[in-house]
Amino acid sequence: MGSREAETEALATPEYWDERYLRSDGGRPTHEWFKSYDQLQPFLTNHLFNVRRPQDQPTVLHLGAGDSDVPQCLLERGYRKQICVDFSSTVVNLMKAKQLDGIAWRQADVRDMPSITSNSIDVAFDKGTLDAMIHGSPWDPPDEVKQNASRYMREVARVLKHDGVFLYITFRQPHFIKPLLSQDGLWDLTGEVLKESESSFDYYAFSMRKAAKASSA
Predict the structure, then answer these.
(1) Which residues partner with 126 through β-bridges?
(2) Beta strands 82-86; 103-107: pairing state
(3) pTM of this prediction?
(4) Burial tier of 25 (Cβ tally within 10 Å: 0-12, 13-18, 19+)
(5) What are the residues whose beta carbons fall under 8 Å from the beta carbon of 130, sequence distance 6 or more?
(6) Rounded distance, CA 153 to CA 182, Å?
(7) DSSP code of 157?
(8) Residue 138 in contact with residue 174, Cβ under 8 Å?
(9) Coil, strand or helix: which one is 193?
């Protein structure tokens, strides 16, 4: 195994991120993956702000939140029932120290979140967490990748309310990522391209709701 492939696989381990977050001071994000809050506002307006307004008090779950400033930006917009989970104890302790009323921090692996009650989340948000679990060939991902993605998707479906929504941001081409999202038939999903005029690199955003059979399970 090459060093690049080994590092890619290490992204799915808490030890890797514990070491990386030792460099963070809890101020500016060290790992604001893919898109900033400002860049995501058009997507969030359509899929969060206009449908899950702050006055409705939706519970928002940030999956693999790291030290992103998206939760704090949502807090400033009025979303005061947020839960951030991450499997890095380093970043969880760092962010807890900020003591932001309206954001609860919990150490948990997104593939197994026993502290999150079933059918309790209105909005789940992932910006790069699933991507960190993916390595190997995009055309034929290793069994480990498929299994991790399956465990993760099942856990998100478990904690989402029947009318909840899962918002996912990725840099991976839809024809590569959709099979991982859909392998268990859990979601009805729609996708869009997040384009910027100054960038030639496309990102993709998915809005997912439980499929009928998943909602009735």
Answers:
(1) 168
(2) parallel
(3) 0.87
(4) exposed
(5) 149, 152, 168, 170, 177, 180
(6) 9
(7) H
(8) no
(9) strand
Cβ-Cβ contacts under 8 Å for 71 (sequence gap 6 or more): 60, 62, 65, 82, 84, 100, 103
In the chain, the domains with their CATH numbers are 1-26+34-208 (3.40.50.150)
For residues 68, 211, 160 and 205, what is the CA-based torsion angle, rounded to 10 degrees? 10
Structure tokens at 5: 């492939």
Q: Find how far residue 89's CA is from the centre of its chain.
A: 17
Cite the DSSP H helix spans in 45-173.
70-77, 89-96, 129-132, 143-159
Q: Distance between CA 110 and CA 120 in Å, rounded? A: 15
Tokens of 187: 């979601």
List average pLDDT for each run of 10 residues in the chain, which is 217 residues long: 53 62 63 81 95 94 93 96 94 90 96 97 96 89 94 98 97 93 95 76 93 67
Strand partners, 208: 166, 189
Specify the DSSP class assigned to residue 109.
B
